[in-house]
Design a protein that fits this description.
alpha/beta; disordered N terminus; 39% helix; 28% strand; 3-stranded antiparallel sheet; 4-stranded parallel sheet; globular; single chain
Length: 174
């Protein structure tokens, strides 16, 4: 699903690969940068790695030459997406964690950095509404859970994984 285009950067050290993804009534773009002679590493944090945009973006990164670290709640979904990535002759690793729990999200980011080293791309794809409750009827605790899933997880992944990109002076595709 989509189009792929390439362009060389002015300094000649990077080749840009852009893939436009469409489907499921949604539209997303994912960008991968491949440094000549170097391996590219991407981490995708999301709940729907067996279907939807998270899976499609991880596969697009793999097709563009990235090895992928997949982070999500469901082991079967993670394993299925990892298998598809490996079928593209790329490496795929999984970390099972519920990023709606801030402590679990932080631990998973630290684990990814410790086990797999620096990353070049971060895809923050976790999100949703696990309970269909009208806002006027929603308890504060459910609201907080929604914010942790949809916002806090993005903040924590960006802070930790993105912070590591900034500290090493390369990467930076979030």
């Amino acid at each position: 699903h989509g189009n792929v285009s390439s362009s060389a950067e002015a300094d000649g050290d990077e080749v840009g690969v852009e893939r436009e993804l469409t489907g499921w009534g949604r539209h997303a773009r994912t960008h991968a940068i491949e440094r000549r002679g170097e391996s590219l590493e991407a981490i995708s944090a999301g709940a729907q790695l067996s279907r939807g945009l998270g899976r499609a973006m991880a596969l697009a990164c793999a097709e563009a030459g990235a090895d992928c670290i997949l982070l999500g709640r469901d082991a079967a979904s993670l394993d299925g997406a990892a298998s598809e990535i490996r079928n593209l002759s790329r490496q795929a690793f999984t970390i099972q964690a519920d990023v709606s729990q801030p402590e679990a999200c932080e631990a998973a980011c630290h684990q990814a950095l410790a086990e797999f080293g620096p990353m070049d791309i971060l895809i923050n794809n976790a999100g949703g509404r696990r309970q269909n409750i009208a806002t006027e009827e929603m308890p504060l605790e459910v609201w907080r859970e929604l914010m942790d899933l949809n916002l806090t997880s993005t903040f924590l992944c960006t802070k930790l994984i993105g912070g590591a990109m900034v500290a090493r002076g390369q990467g930076g595709r979030i």
